[in-house]
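Case study B.
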Amino acid sequence: MTSTVESQDQTDALAERIKQAHAAGTPIAIAGSGSKRFLGEPVDTSAHDTLDITAHRGIVSYEPGELVLTARAGTPLADIEAALTAEGQRLAFEPPHYGAGATLGGTIAAGVSGPARPYTGAARDFVLGTKIINGQGEILRFGGEVMKNVAGYDLSRLMAGAHGTLGVLLEISLKVLPTPRTQATRVFEHNAEQALAAFSSWAARPWPISATYWEAGRTYLRLSGATSSVDAAAQALGGEPVADDVDFWRGVREHERVFFTDGENALWRVSCAPAAPITELPGSLALDWGGAQRWRVTDAPAEAVRDAARLHGGHATLYRGDAHPRGQALAPALLAAHHRLKHAMDPAGILNPGRLIPEG
Amino acid sequence: MSDVTTDDRARALDAAGCIGKPEMVAALQAELPHDIVLHDDESLRPFECDGLSAYRTLPMIAVLPATIEQVQTVMRICYEYDTPVVARGAGTGLSGGALPLERGVLLSLAKFNRILDVDTDNLRATVQPGVRNLAISQEVDHLGLYYAPDPSSQIACSIGGNVAENSGGVHCLKYGLTTHNIIKLEIVTVDGERLTIGSDALDSPGYDLLALMTGSEGLLGVIVEIVVKLLPKPELAQVAMVAFDDVRAAGDAVANIIKAGIVPAGLEMLDSPAIIATEEFVHAGYPTEAAAILLCEIDGTEAEVAEDIERVRQVVNDSGASDVRISKNDGERALFWAGRKAAFPAMGRISPDYYCMDGTIPRKALADVLIGIGELSKKYGQRVANVFHAGDGNLHPLILYDANNPGELERTEEFGGAICELCLKHGGTITGEHGVGVEKIDQMCVQFPKAELLQFHAVKAAFDDKTLLNPGKAVPTLHRCAEFGAMHVHHGEMPFPELERL
Ligand SMILES: Cc1cc2nc3c(=O)[nH]c(=O)nc-3n(C[C@H](O)[C@H](O)[C@H](O)COP(=O)(O)OP(=O)(O)OC[C@H]3O[C@@H](n4cnc5c(N)ncnc54)[C@H](O)[C@@H]3O)c2cc1C
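Model:
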């Protein structure tokens, strides 16, 4: 494939920087475009060196017939999506960009996924292989470009959501999928409980569902797939059509809807079992991912939000506002395992220290 | 064949002069019911091998716990006495992952055979690790649900073994591998602690340890409980049986189907020796004169299946198919699949032994690699049948041999190694779903350079500081790679220059 995407290989220079940092014990802040910086724990990086990944960019290989794309971590997500669109394919986890400059590396490191997540999978589900720099400045490859691979531990999938604390992502190989031929969205009048019940009953049947969302008394259901089955499902499930549905789902994915942008109160993400009952909290609520991702705009104290999440086996993350930590603390035995794993990948503790878990 | 008594770990244990069998039996029996601690040869015999039966070792002791607390006790005692532990599910593994250690405890999860909960609101089931894969789908069948990953061994293999191997199956092309279909694990660590990995939510704080544990072949922890995802059964499934006169055309048709934007529920291939053997065995109606057949299953709503199956017909016709038959009903669909499902036993009828390989390659290399395997077959003078997950590029060459002929097993293993290396040459991996175990441990030295192997060891040490969990499997020591001699040559550097050649 010929690509118009700018291509630059900075592997050796980046590895050299990490080697030196490892030797000197200097902490490194890994920076993509910074669009998802708010997702990790805020770290005082005044004593850190910043490692800018954005110059390490370009699509290394893309063969539509293989359903695999490999790109350098600094490649803008927008460039990757443009290359895929040209071949009628896409990233099926619909990554949110949260900003124009979002990079592939930042997207995978943050492990973020869009509205299709419960139906087609998360970012981690599409990672086939990675090339990374570990905390000692060694360049390592795990996984590959094939669909199935159980040789060695799955360290490439482990990079998804690790926020760069286990390695600097250099290249990522992703499974890509054909873009569904048709998409349609239906809207229903529901209260929150009715929405959850609808999500549950829809999910138990083989409808071609690709997204579900509830906000302010309305449930939105997106169907994707073969034209015939989308039409049949729309007819059987009812509801009213939504005309500008591409815009609608972009608004949900990128947090452009008024629900997310309005007001000063904290914005929380609660991740829980999809059918978990709704807990009482002040403020407003939106249900995403068939109920498994819930957004709360609230002035409730952080502990109240966390307790509510924990009550049903879930966890809460702060997206906007002040609280420490922004994520949810790990049980002591699990935290100890995290520290040992971090040490195994980054013995000097120089990669994004404190960004995901408290330093041990 | 590798002799497990020379296993690195056993050597180290000998050197350390570790605790003897009577003391270990006594230590375990002091805290566990006596009847779950087996130690005489006769009761240990059933555990001496897994599905890779060319390798056999009697464990020192086998323990069959029935509760998580008992697993914790076993692990705590073994940790205290530096005794290695090999977990075992159903023992259907094909890479010797559950092969016991002469100086080790074999921990069988066979008694953990209960489905604890089916949650229809959240579409998941909580199961014990010894539950058979197929038992989950049977349990929820009346609800219109199923568990998607379906290894061909599904009537026998355990879900714990599936997680440990990240097993796949015919339907993984569309529905993913084990790693895509589990939500939460309970594990017991090497020192007997209990950890929850994952959560009730679709993601969890911290690292994705669920991904790390899946496919770790019992080297990082003992899995004692699993929450799996359930899916609604598709409204309809239809299978196209497509014949080709030429293996290359069949290989290309696989890539063309995927390129056309179709995501089949399954896309399997059989070559001529496999077709002939299975047809004689089950009479599925396979065309015995074909060079290869593809079985392409489409599922979904009625309308969707009708639309896509026609597109499949068009693509395979354009790719040079000699015959296309589409199942007219579920009976015929089952018949078309019967041959594929019976392929392994069918081989058992035409050859005293067979050896199953598992390399995975990019789809575009299918034809070249199949032709390459044919050439190797001539070179080694041994027959090969291919029956495999073509849609995923996951090959299963079955090398036919007779273990009673002196030297034939060794030659077969050498042939297998050559197939692994052929897959690597085409950008593939030595194992797609069966795991490394003891079988492919030498080929790991070819697939991975030293730095990656050392990184794997460091990760292992983070979970198993004394190297007691299934030692000697999955990841080779650098010494072993130096002995094997055929290591990955990285950037033209001589691998392991610091290690003396033995
Ligand atoms: C005829 C046949 C067909 C097959 N078809 C397929 C196929 O289509 N796809 C596929 O992927 N595989 C296939 N296999 C391979 C095998 O069935 C799978 O690898 C299966 O997952 C093994 O499960 P088991 O319970 O038999 O595990 P075992 O063989 O008992 O163990 C396998 C590995 O898992 C570890 N282990 C087992 N249980 C646990 C536990 N609870 N905690 C920690 N570690 C554990 C063991 O230590 C060992 O390393 C096939 C095998 C046969 C014989």
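DSSP finds 18 helices and 18 strands in chain B. The remaining cases will be described in the next quarterly update.
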